[in-house]
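Tokens for chain A. Residues wanted.
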């Protein structure tokens, strides 16, 4: 009987620890996603402020890079935001499939940890 009670208590403790670990991971994912969303917004604001010709791919890569560095939640947020923006932009802006494809390439490059400066145009102020 005592053995059964000990095994039952041990299993409850183990399950509780696993649940708490899962909650912690979920909380971290949400924090990373929120931070990644902020990184994407910051890159967008900087792009608008810079208003620099041929710099959009750099800001796409930088926003995705910064967000993905936060962890899986940040990478997830960057992918969702990038895909939504490109889906909307391709149907509204009239820039065409080629521009959307190039933007998505820069997004992927940044999310995979590639250096955003690959897309940096000459003359873009060092502030960015």
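Reply:
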């Amino acid at each position: 009987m005592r053995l059964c009670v000990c095994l039952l208590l041990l299993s409850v403790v183990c399950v509780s620890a696993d649940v708490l670990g899962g909650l912690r991971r979920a909380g971290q994912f949400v924090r990373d996603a929120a931070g990644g969303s902020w990184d994407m917004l910051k890159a967008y604001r900087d792009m608008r402020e810079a208003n620099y010709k041929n710099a959009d791919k750099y800001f796409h890569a930088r926003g995705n890079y910064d967000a993905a560095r936060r962890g899986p939640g940040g990478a997830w947020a960057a992918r969702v935001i990038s895909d939504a923006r490109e889906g909307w932009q391709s149907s509204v802006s009239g820039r065409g499939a080629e521009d959307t494809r190039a933007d998505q390439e820069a997004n992927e490059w940044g999310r995979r940890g590639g250096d955003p400066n690959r897309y940096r145009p000459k003359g873009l102020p060092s502030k960015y």
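The domain at 32-119 is CATH 1.10.132.110 (Topoisomerase I; Chain A, domain 4). Helices lie at 2-50, 56-68, 72-92, 97-111.
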